[in-house]
Amino acid sequence: MRIWHAMWLQRIDDKITALQQREAEQQHGRQARPAEPEWIVELGIGAGRPPAEIHVGGCYAAGKRRRPIGRNEARRLFASGVRACSHCQADTALDILDLPTRPALSATAH
């Protein structure tokens, strides 16, 4: 009976140690994660991969072809005609009010 209890205590201690190690690794990962960029430019397909859309740093709608940009570059790209994301509205976050209006959604679209 003693051997059986000792075996189970060892299993419990091993599990506790593994959980503590996993939690420490997750905490280290959270602390070591690079900061989220303030602005993202989504890049198009093709020669030179032209900028297609500008997003706020944490926008869920940003595609995989993207790179971080600074505030000044985001303003410059808006001025050159690159559109803002309709989900995160990066133009509004940058306080840019004089962009061309977005086309309205069709009333018949579902």
Tell me what the structure shows.
This protein has helices at 2-32, 71-79, 90-93; strands at residues 39-43, 51-56, 66-69, 83-84. With 110 residues, it is an alpha+beta fold. The protein folds into 2 domains: 1-33; 39-93, no CATH class. A hairpin with a 7-residue loop joins strand 1 and strand 2 (51-56). It starts with a helix and ends in a 17-residue tail after the last helix.
- The tally of domains stands at 2
Q: What is the 3D shape?
A: rod-shaped
Mean pLDDT: 84
Order of neighbouring strands in the sheet with most strands: 3-1-2-4
Tell me the helix content: 40-55%
Q: What is the H-and-E element order? A: HEEEHEH
Number of helices: 3
Structural class: alpha+beta
End-to-end distance, in Å?
A: 69 Å
Rg (CA only): 25 Å
How many β-strand stretches? Answer: 4
Low-confidence stretches: 101-110
Features:
4-stranded mixed β-sheet, 110 residues, 2 domains, alpha+beta
Fold topology:
Elements: H1 2-32, E1 39-43, E2 51-56, E3 66-69, H2 71-79, E4 83-84, H3 90-93
Parallel strand pairs: 2-4
Antiparallel strand pairs: 1-2, 1-3
